[in-house]
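Project standup — Tuesday

K.O.: blocked on the structure for the chain from last sprint. Re-posting the sequence here as requested.
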Amino acid sequence: MGQSDPDAIGTAVPFRVVIVRHEEGAAHMPYITTADGTEIYYTDQGEGQPIVLSHGWPLSSDAWQVELKVFADAGYRTIAHDRRGHGRSSKTYTGNDMTTYARDLSELIEHLDLHDVVLVGHSTGGGEVVRYAAQFANGRVAKVVTAGAVPPIMLKSDSNPEGTPIEAFDGIREGVLKDRSQFYQDLALPFYGGNRDNSGLSKGLIDDFWRQGMLVNLAAAYDCVKAFSETDQTEDLKAIDVPIFIAQGDDDQIVPIAAAAEKSIKLVKDGTLKVYPGASHGIWGAYQEELDKDILEFIKK
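H.V.: unblocked you, prediction finished:
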């Protein structure tokens, strides 16, 4: 239909054609719908043994863009999803807790019928893959990798004196509620170590952290703070029966290494710990290059 066809203008026929095409295209979009009706977005690249990547808060699968290419180029089927409430997935008010996150991951893996899976989780995503491997795996998991992961538990207590005080997490919740846009810009600096001398952190990386953070709906962002800080995953770590590679930077300003990687390695049956000197919580730069090589080496073992 064009300007040369005035009789057709305003008729319903062309609009019906557009709608049908849209519906046909939607069937091929990379989403699954979970049992509770939540739409989970995912990206799926390459062929071979599957590597499934779970991102940190407040990011999305976009945080894994480098790994999606590097691992696919190395001969693996590489899959990353947006956690509920994050990225392009449903903006959820409910289910923003670690068990539901792991159940969503389970539904994705079963929908794609993946086996011999290598799970890779960063930060909150580390908690997600640990809970999935411990409680939902059903024999589908070959290996687990965590980086700057939140298990066993971040919150400081009498039994976890190395943890982070509740006031810090209350501050995160306050920042998200008050002015989340400015809060995410500010948080990017300690997240990537940009507050250290000569860090080399680019404005582009800060902008991308902010961009991904602004895609999280407020309820999901707020509730996820409790999920990543107060979920005790001690028993999950003990239950994992496959090899696990635990990575963390020793300058992680978000997840204290003494409460995380250094405790996790003592709880797992078959673990390898690698501490990256000077590395931040966020995965970027030289840390990212070394970590990605280490992950590929760990998978091949």
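K.O.: great, moving the ticket to review. The chain has one domain: 34-300. The beta strands are 31-33, 39-45, 50-54, 77-81, 117-122, 141-147, 244-249, 271-276.
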